[in-house]
Amino acid sequence: MRLPQNSPSSAESATTTTRSAPVTVEGLTVRYGDTHAIRNVDLKVKPGEFVSLLGPSGSGKTTLLRSVAGFVIPDSGRILMGDDDVTRLPPRYRNFGMVFQRYALFPHMRVADNVASGLKTRRVPKAQAKDLGAEALALVGLTAEARRYPEQLSGGQQQRVALARAMVIKPSLLLMDEPLGALDLRLRQQLQADIRALQQRLSITAIYVTHDQEEAFSMSDRVVVMNAGRISCQGTPEELYSSPGSSFAASFVGHNTVFSLGRADVPADGTIAGLPGQERPFRLTEPVAADTSSVHFVVGIDHIRCYDHPAPHAEEATVLGRRFTGLNELVTVQVRDTIMTVLAPASGPEAGDRVYISWDPGDLHVIEETADGSVVRAGRAVDSSVASPGNSSPRAVVGQ
Ligand SMILES: Nc1ncnc2c1ncn2[C@@H]1O[C@H](COP(=O)(O)OP(=O)(O)O)[C@@H](O)[C@H]1O
Ligand SMILES: [Mg+2]
User: Fold this and answer.
1) 390 inside domain
2) Minimum-distance ligand to the CA of 34?
3) For position 143, which CATH number holds?
4) Same domain for 255 and 150
5) 39 and 131 share a domain?
6) Which residue among 44, 206, 273, 292 is least packed, with the fewest CB closer than 10 Å?
7) CB 87 within 8 A of CB 78
8) What region, left, alpha or beta, does residue 207 occupy, with left being phi > 0 and alpha being psi -120 to 50 degrees?
9) Residues 301-321: what's their mean pLDDT?
10) How many domains does the chain have?
């Protein structure tokens, strides 16, 4: 990683007045010493689109966002805003607004001055700065608080000020890095809705970093799942929920159960038998691809039945624990060596109780991956009308 240079080559052309710049990231790699923070990332964000980068801590979300902002210069790859290559353009010429997790307000400045501070460095005349500042404060509903100091505001209000400060320059791109992480749940939900509404009203292009899947799902047009510096898969919230594009996303998002088989455990005729909770064999409709090294069978929690009594085709399981999410009662069960999370039957079984689990092969989502975790293909259906039981008994079943 190198620090940005100070000599802009195409500052004027990169500073656009439209609020909906498309962003293109091509083959981006950033290393810190031996650590690959991001590896060969490609990403396109459409004008006016709200894209979330979702992934666990350390997956490279912040590094990718800071590269788009210009705080990090990549080791290789390019970043375009519109048609302009901004890869080496200093941040102040990129015309984005940014909101960080920590409010980063100036404590000794009134709210109005905090908001207008971004205009000063751009040498906007005072009278115009005042109007623009008032306009930005109105956007976030804080007109009445203009003369207060940050410490006289709640956390949620402070983050609204940070948002107003990001918006005051009329950016063509809004970048947010876990901006609501420090707020309690209720405020967070309120601000999620407010930020989304503002972004849609202004149709500003937005990239939003979060490790919270509910937040990503509720706000975004598209969610990009990151893992270990790479984009694992991406899609609309609905697509990711119903048909995750990688085994990592399937484990990270929702409450899927993922059965993972090594290539050697899939017989040549593609007949699979003996997965936990499924006594009937089924068959892959196509041969496994040449470079596939693992095959993952994903079943969503909505498709798993859990009975408190023996039922046809259901396999016995032991309840390990239960958890109330506020919406659902979930139980964690063990079927042979596999741990699954399922919706609790009405009887509300306790740890140690016996339950019976089943699911249909027709509801499986199949993902094939290479040895390094790249997705070969995802979403294949299986043929569940296999008449005779297959003789394969998978050895390496890993449930989740
Ligand atoms: N300034 C830095 N110096 C060294 N390593 C860093 C630095 N920033 C990030 N990293 C490393 O890069 C990887 C990605 O970090 P980051 O982009 O902050 O991930 P995330 O935002 O998803 O938590 C991590 O392994 C992290 O430790
Ligand atoms: Mg981060």
Assistant:
1) no
2) 1
3) 3.40.50.300
4) no
5) yes
6) 44
7) yes
8) beta
9) 95
10) 2
Question: Is 359 strand, coil or helix?
Answer: coil
How much is the CA Rg of the chain, to the nearest whole Å? Answer: 25
- Is residue 73 within 8 Å of residue 2, measured between CB atoms? yes
What secondary structure does DSSP assign to 54-107, as a single string? E--TTSSHHHHHHHHHTSSB-SEEEEEETTEE-TTS-GGGS-EEEE-SS----T
Of the listed ligands, the closest to the CA of 72 is 1
Q: Model's pTM, two decimal places? A: 0.87
Domain that holds residue 367: 244-383
Q: Please choose from 62, 73, 101, 210 the residue to mutate so as to test ligand 1's pocket, defined by most ligand atoms within 8 A of CB.
A: 62
Atom 24 in ligand 1: residue holding the nearest Cα? 58
Q: Point out the ligand 1 atom lying closest to the alpha carbon of residue 30.
A: 12
Domain boundary among 223, 238, 253: 238
Nearest CA to ligand 1 atom 25: 58
The residue whose two tokens read 């992480």 is 181
**pLDDT per residue over 175-199, tens digit each?**
999 999 888 888 899 999 999 999 9
Within a domain: 337: yes
